[in-house]
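Lab meeting notes turned into a lecture example. A postdoc, R.K., suggested we walk through two folding results consecutively so the class can see how the record format repeats. The first protein's sequence and structure tokens come next.
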Amino acid sequence: MSADLDATMRAVDRAIAAPPLPDPPTALKVGLDLGTACTVLVALDDADRPLAAAYELGDVVRDGVVVDFLGAVDLVRRLRADVEDRLGVAVTAAHGAFPPGVPPAEVRAVRHVIEAAEMDCTGLVDEPTAANAVLRLRDGVVVDVGGGTTGVAVVRGGEVVHTADEATGGTHLTLVIAGAQRIPVEQAERLKKDPAEQTRLLPVVRPVMEKVASIVATHTRGWPVPRVYLVGGSAAFPGFADVVSQALGLDAVVPVNPLFVTPLGIARSAPVRQPAAPRPVPLPST
């Protein structure tokens, strides 16, 4: 991966812990990634520089489908408030995203969540296309390994020419660990994220990674595939790229902080909006 991409992803990481800005921005581009395991809100300036970002784990979406509408709205409102506090302006609009192949009604649900969280929805983009707004591939395959599904996008000449999506993702890694170790799912999720345990668990989760490779092979058949780029939080599991590379016989790479590639791309896909004045702070009740 290029040094520029690594620097970009580290800038997003810094934006998550960034203190309040000394001066409020005069232009904003905001993206919301309403994910199965993690929801992320990213705010950029008009030059696509990360200003503030926030994320929270939550079980409000499954396999690209909003299953807890009110919970999703509350979660997004919390993220919006966090970002607003650090920007010093009100976030009044956000771009959204969806996995390829999700039914139109569920795509509209993402828009409804954004609007119920008191923001305008400036548009929706499929997740692999959003990821390529960051990767900027000319030719290759973007594989977005989410919590419940894996999205695949074939890029030719800088344009996404084919997308697909199948069930298999981070949740499946967790379930395999839980079954193999005979432990509760919650404990398996903690083990999955523990760097001290990941080397030991790689043989356990390898079949899930090979399934991801199989999904890629199925949905890229007939297309030239010079390289595979893995994004999404699950792609950060050590050894994921190696397993996919071995299974496909292709070069597979993971950028720095792969969880934030798609959220950043969603924000980059958003139109520039002039921010509003800060939202009023409610007066304490008497």
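The second example is placed directly after the first for contrast:
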Amino acid sequence: MSKVAWYRRPGFTNLPMLITLARCAAVPVMVWLLWSTPDAPAAFCTMLVFVTAMVGDVLDGWLARKWNIQSVAGAFLDPIADKLLVLATLVMMIPLGWVPAWMVLVLEARELIVGALRQIAVSEGLVIPAGSLGKFKTAYQSTALGFLLFHYDGVGINAHTVGIVLLWQSMLMSVVSGLQYALGYAKHRRARLAAEAEAN
């Protein structure tokens, strides 16, 4: 029997899991880099760390599916690493004046509400598929944070302004996709209650 390479073995030592764990480790790094007002070189380094972590978010899932080594631990850690990284970055940019506090509150309130609805749906045996708008929201949000972290003018563009515009778009998509998920939950729940009523 052929020996499976270490990076494709199930468990915590395969490449997709190591990428996920590295993304978790990037959270305190981001906090440290943004702790004091960074100058242009430090802001550039912070942006590189964030972008690398976001690329890792796509890569670890793709590799896990390709090599068929998905795991419960990976499925649990992957979204946590993503949300912690985004939350830490947004919160640390508030005292720097790079993002409005109210906008961070709206974005994070949406995540908490949708997360709570997902848990309720799972406990009730409901499966509500994620909408495509939510995926666009994630892409816009990640791109916005990349520009905001760069912050300083470069290559002929105002990175901060571009980031704020993209973050506005991300926030609007976030709110709409959250409402879509809430309406989807309500629809599925009504259908299930109607089916149970007919059965009785």
